[in-house]
Amino acid sequence: MTRMKRIIVSVLDMITRISGSVLDMMTRIIVSVMDMITRLCVSVLDMITRISGSVLDMMTRIIVSVMDMITRLCVKDTNTVVSESTDMVDVSSSTAITTNFIGQKTENLGADMCERSCEELSTMFQELKGLRVVVGNLIDGLQKVTEENTVMKDTLGKIKNSKEKHMCWQDGRMFEDKEDWVVDSCTTCTCQDSKIVCHQITCPPVACASPSFLDGECCPVCLPMDSEDGWSPWSEWTECTVTCGTGTQQRGRSCDATSNPCSGPSIQTRKCSLGKCDSRVRQDGRWSLWSPWSSCSVTCGEGQITRIRHCNAPTPQLGGKDCDGQGRVTQRCEAKPCPIDGGWGPWSPWAICSATCGGGVKGRTRVCNSPEPQYGGQKCPGETNDSNACNKQDCPIDGCLSNPCFGGVDCNSGSDGSWECGPCPLGFRGNGTHCDDVNECDIVSDVCFKAGGALRCVNTDPGFHCLACPPRYKGTQPFGVGVEAASKNKQVCEPENPCKDKTHNCHRSAECIYLSHFSDPMYKCECRIGYAGDGFICGEDSDLDGWPNQNLVCGANATYHCRKDNCPNLPNSGQEDFDKDGQGDACDKDDDNDAIVDERDNCPLLYNPRQFDFDKDDVGDRCDNCPYEHNPAQIDTDHNGEGDACAVDIDGD
Q1: The VWFC domain covers which part of the protein (predicted)?
Q2: How confident is the model at residue 256 (pLDDT cuts 50, 70, 90)?
Q3: What percent of the chain has pLDDT over 90?
Q4: Which member of 120, 144, 185, 527 lies 3.0 to 4.6 Å from 116 by CB, making a disulfide possible if both were Cys?
């Protein structure tokens, strides 16, 4: 029995060492082999299969042997009842093992038989059973790797030949040149000269906050289920809050509604199991992950959002410390402004009654501003205006209702039905009942200007007005009502003086000369010195010869020179111009326009550009009265055009 006990203890220690060593060795081997795959490809893949298979077979045989030995040692009595259940539970997309053991102690086998109780050995048995499942899964996984390695080895052998044919390789498949294929719903690829060219689909924008992705479809779409009464879709479940035992997972959603409030929870929690924890180990508590923030506690105004966490990752046990800190955190949140219903302000004072007697109406108003309706709140109920009857007493008899007074005269009635008229209006006289027009023209005889004894005042009913001042007079044209207005506002007419009044039409360079009130015209215009014209039209005249420097407008029957002076700077009232070139002889240096100035021209007034002078007397043949006789004096006694030097009859008799 002592020997058996030592064997059991040794086996248990060996199991612990082998389990840890084998798992470490497997990890190192797998990591090393994966690195070698990248560098050596086909040859290393075969070695992975042989090594992994041998190690797993050895570990499986050891575990089975130990489990059989424990079974023979601990389960001998027919009274022993041991039940076990091993389930595979899908938690957070990973596979975990949960072992629940229910049993009774076997009969006492004696202290010298086993140092460990059957409960402890059974727990170890269950752990080994779970390890066997894990190892089995590893064997299956390595078997798949071996099969894939075989396929890869065959495929790698073809790659060398495929490059020469411009083929492409992707995801374990060979594609011909120019061949198209679909990678996924969002990507299509083409083989072009051994190069893979892929194109991504561009998705249009969607109108919902949380669109759905359908199987086989690349782009998101909006479905009715994408929003449950304003809620966004649920998020993925969080990781389990514990690494062993029973923990929790959470998922959340947010309220996307803009008008209707969301109903239902914003956070969901479920349990998750990751295997039985070792109850023999003291452990401190640790916080789980924070849950997602909850929705705002209010749909309008200011509220709170909350998130929580649990001290269960792991839960403190065997005297372990509790988690430090708070398990709940809140923050302030603001939703849209809350609707504010309108409230009436105070009534205004009553208005004046619409009648002083006989029944009238008075009103008052109020305003919906205490407070004003905002953010979709209700308007104030009721009416804005209110009215009430007033002055219901009977009216006294009014003697003025029959209009006994003259039009425009105030009527005052007494309580006994009597009446009294006020004074007549301005411009009238009488007792108030009858009023006659006042003739201001007769009473104030000089109110209007008199010319030749003619009456120029016009009486109106009521009032008066004066006619306009006579021709060649200027002044006011008063009007008014009543004798007082006629006395204060008399007409004054003065003779006109266009020169003094600046109403003449003389040129700005001319002087206006007033003749008399009765002359026709009353004034005349004369151009100032240095100007030429008729006074109404004037132009500058530099040489004061009566001819303007520039052409003037020539009126009908003009009595002034309107043509431009042909010598503006030399007086030449005759405007002589021998050669008719527009330049007067007084200022023309070549009067005959033969291109020879007068000072050197032997005939300055006759065109003779060749300057012939037969008798050499400095008088050209064209103008010499004796061209063949030298006679520079050009004496011609009888003025017949023939000089005395060559005349047969000097005196012409």
Answers
A1: 166-223
A2: low
A3: 11
A4: 120
Report pLDDT for 555: 76
List the one residue out of 66, 60, 55 whose CA is nearest residue 25: 55
- The residue among 471, 488, 472 whose CA lies nearest residue 480 is 488
Per-residue model confidence as pLDDT tens digits over 89-141: 333 333 333 333 333 343 444 444 455 556 666 666 666 666 666 667 777 77
Distance from C-alpha of 155 to C-alpha of 160, rounded to nearest angstrom: 10
Last residue of a domain, one of 540, 557, 588: 588
> Does residue 46 sit in the same domain as residue 101?
yes
Residue 168 in this model has a pLDDT that exceeds 60: yes
Distance of CA 183 to the CA centre of its chain: 44
CATH of the domain at 307: 2.20.100.10
Average pLDDT, the chain: 74
9 & 112 share domain: yes
**Phi then psi dihedrals of residue 387, to 5 deg:** -135, 160
For the chain, how many structural domains are there in total? 5
Q: Which two tokens stand for residue 426?
A: 């301005």
Contacts of 243 (CB under 8 A, 6+ apart): 274, 313, 314
The string of pLDDT tens digits covering residues 324-381 is 999 899 999 988 889 999 999 999 999 999 998 888 999 999 999 999 999 889 999 9
pLDDT in tens, 378-408: 999 999 999 999 998 877 777 888 888 998 8
Write out the two tokens for 57: 């077979």
Helix (H) or strand (E) holding 284: none
Measured distance between the N- and C-terminal CA atoms of the chain, rounded to whole angstroms = 205
- Residue 158 and residue 169 in one domain: no
Q: How many residues does the chain have?
A: 653
Composition of the chain by helix, strand, coil, percent to 5: 20, 20, 60
Residue type, position 206, single letter: V
Peptide bond into 470 cis (omega under 30): no
CA dihedral 11→15→21→27, nearest 10 degrees, is: 160
Report the CATH number at residue 569.
Answer: 2.10.25.10
Is residue 294 within 8 A of residue 267, CB to CB? The reply is yes
Burial class (CB in 10 A: 0-12, 13-18, 19+), 250: buried
357 vs 350, 353, 420, CA distance in Å? Answer: 17, 9, 22
Structural domain span for residue 422: 405-495
535, 561: one domain:
yes
pTM for this prediction: 0.29
The predicted-structure confidence for 438-480, as pLDDT tens digits, reads as follows 888 888 888 898 877 777 899 988 899 999 988 888 888 899 9
Cβ of 284: how many Cβ atoms within 10 Å?
Answer: 15
